[in-house]
Here is the input.
Amino acid sequence: MKTPRFGERLVALIVLAALLFSPPLILPFDRTANGGLSWLPLYLFLAWGIVIALAAWLMEHGYDDQGGA
Amino acid sequence: MPRVLVVDDEPNIVLSLEFLMQQAGFDVVTAGDGEQALARVAEQAPDLILLDISLPGISGFDVLEQLRADPVHARLPIIMLTAHGREVEREKGMALGADDYVTKPFSTQALVDKVQALLDEAR
Amino acid sequence: MRTDPLVLGVAFGYLALLFVIAAWGDRRAEQGRSVIGSPTVYTLSIAVYCTAWTFYGSVGRAAEYGPSFLMIYLGPTLAMLASPFVIRKMVRIARAQRITSIADFISARYGKSGSLGALVALIALIGITPYIALQLKAITLSHAVLMNYPEPPGLRLVEEGFWADKSFWVALVLAVFIILFGTRYLDASERHEGMVAAIAFESLVKLFAFLAVGIFTVFVMFNGPGDLFARAASHPELNDALSLEAVPGGGIGWVGTLVLAFLAFLTLPRQFQVLVVENVDERHIKRASWLFPLYLLVINLFVIPIALAGVLLGDPGGDPDSFVLTLPLSAGLDDLPLLVFIGGLSAATGMVIVETIALSTMVSNHLVMPLLLRSPHLHLGSRGNLSGWLLGIRRVAIVMILLLGYLYHALIGDSYSLVTIGLVSFAAATQFAPALLLGLYWRGATRLGATLGLLAGFAVWIYTLLLPGFAQSGWLDDTFLQHGPFGLAWLRPYALFGLEGWDIYSHSLLWSQLANAGTLIGVSLFTQQNRLEQTQAALFTGALHTSLVYTPLWQGQTTRGELEALLNRYLGAPATERILTGLAQQTSDDQAVPPEVIARAERALAGALGSASARVLINSVVRGEALDLEAVLSILDTTSQTLEYNRQLEQKSRELAKVGEELRSANERLRELDRLKDEFVAMVSHELRTPLTSIRAFAEILRDNHDLPDDKRRHFLDVVVLESQRLSRLIEEILDLARLESGRLTLHPQRLDLAALVRQSVDAVHRVQEERGVMLEVAIDTDEAPVIGDPDRLEQVIINLLDNAGKFAADENPHVLLRLERHKQHYRLSVEDNGHGIGEDERERVFEKFHQIQQYGAGSGQVRGRPRGSGLGLPISRGIVAHLGGRLWVENASTLGGACLVMELPMAPAGIEVQEAVKKNKAPPER
Here is the structure.
């Protein structure tokens, strides 16, 4: 048996990731720091890392191999 | 002359009972609620009590219970009066040690007879 | 130090190492101790996604176009997140049907269509070969940079001839490798364990090499990331380098690249190969779904720092694509550049190996074999063993594909930058997405729809990306780029239908996917599936839900002899024996073969030849309707019907449980009502008996005593009269209450002046209150108080309130204050007394029926002859006020300190019909 809400949680995570990676959510971070470089790459790497961490947690804890999705 | 204590919160009922008892030749004391009733018992040492159940404050049942708990009044004749026609109340009153139970409205003659009979029995 | 022999020695030494690893992996597999049976190896094999394009090109793209290169990796991140839905389904289908490639997958989905498989194989060949060329070019270029630094690399290919080009020899070595480890078995759906092990190893090498150069750049050439970014920030040219402005096409280009990478990750032939065909255990997918994105994140960590460093250290002539190499070279190192070269080599060779295997399988199974099967010379007539032929075809295909890639690189490789070819290939691969993904989830997609969709999308791809690329390379007249073909501006390839301002990839993606998916859906809606298509569509779309076992029922007849001959010819004797085990040895050649053996034979042939060819072959020996499609479909339908039926049953039982629950609570409510009714009857009887008792007692006294004094007689008669009045009032109240509760209370609402009504009510009770010694004070703060109400009923309420207040006012100097004032859109009438007041917890209970407020103090009931209330006045008053749209409640008396009852009625709207106003204000009856 898989955790009953695995599917819903995974869909939510995919939607979250898609939103985090695209405009308009990336626009607020497209600002230059005091020196002149944009924060955008830093934001992207952070968001990416968070999504991976959430996925790792979900896959390793919320999912059992025997079930179907 | 035997003394009868009439306890009821309806002034007109007290009035009628007072008249009836006086006419039957008893000395009558009255009370409008449970506390008063207990005080009258202590002061006046009545020979019989006509006790209404639904009284403001201490109910008739409480008065009955307290009197029966005191050995001095354990055998004092008490007639319960009630406007509730329910059997449960009658049984409760009898279980608590009432000598008789009269449902309102009552026949005046029957009530007087009951009082007389109980007083005779007690003597 | 960087001598040619050394570099070549290391490079070919590395390739030799790959051979060793692959051979080791294969031997372990034969011994049954697989080295690739782990989710980590699976993840590393997926990392074949990161090619030389990632290794060298990401830095170049970052230097030119800012952070947009990340989209190429965020897309696959999204795809891998969805892998428990999508890829798991594909793996399950591929396992059940022995799918060998993405062409086979799409062909099988649409009724094992041979033409569709051929089309997919052709598109892949055209679209992906340049990508292979790109890898070879990267090898040549990186070698040249390594050898010539600090001179510009200068591709001297044309002058020197191919034998001097190292990548030609690399390609040759790779061809040998792929033939050795990619075509060991005929069955292409068997895993290539040795090859996968080598690919996983290559993924580790390229990651290690890239991290090494990144760490060297950031921590040795600069003093950590802080120093690097501070110096980059002070460089005015780099101001916008990392912002969205540097991305071609801005926000649209951003999203376009993200979608492009997402789709391409699922449809690139090499990704399909490692994700689906080479998957050994579908449980590995869940680990890979986050571990692979992590790999991507790590390998991209240093891309931006290296790009910034490359620009900062100013190598004006340097190609950003080569920063990875030139940075350590400029620092005067020898070992690190060599490591980087090997890393790039590993990225390139990994991609070439897997892509070539995938393409060669497609080419041999879907382009060559179907042609050969049609040729009468090769078919059943001849008696030779064809299994060797099959392997031969695949090997030739491998060599041809690599040669084609090399030619592409040698002849036209200079025209594009690395990144450009990569994205053009991506866009070609995404043409498979509609047929693949819609086919997985929409049962109605038909073969014709998929074929036409693919053609349409591919045509748009050629027109919007390939031809303009040719034009820019100078092989075509590029006027049609600027002005459109035949001067038709709306047909300009980079601004189709006037869509301008988009980057070319998003532009092409949009139009080609629209054409592709649109045609697929549109045509599918108007075409019929044949029965095999229906079956396959059902098996594909239902792969996850109904745990279907693929057991096609063969109806047709064939003999053991015929089947054995067929299998022998295409698969060889050992494989044939495995398939036919279970058939009794003594079975004669003329005996009929059981259906499941025919099914097993078809699957085995499909693993070697692809499903379409396998089907053609089986049909050639089986007589009669080969496959009982009706039966398969009915199995499918029964399964889904059963599921549907179960679902309905479940829903029914849930509904039943709910109804039961409702019944139970309704029953409880009824019981509660019953109890309340009993209580009410008891209370009513008690209240009626009390006056009746006095009446009867005095009536009997008067009857039995004729000689009573006159004053006493009159007194007793007065009591009888008073108690009779009380009795009738009580009955009236009980009836009112009953009407209120049943909603049958008839009110006669009209517009009236509440102030006047108050004065009238006060007059009515004034005398009685005076007699009782109550001081009644009236304060009306408004001239007129128009409300809608029934005057009689409202007067009853006001009198009741005054009466109550009089009863509960203080024994000494009883005082009652009535106040009428306007409050917002309402009129408020409050009646205060100076009595004990009503405690917080009693304030709602006074509106309960027969609730009598306890009056403390000895004999208070008799003081001033105030009669006791029935306990019905306030509930009735509240009911009436509620019917008129108002409220009645208790609060603290602000002036007199006792209780205060407040009645609030809405102001009568000027000029509105009375009846309507009442309807609107009418509250539901209270229980």
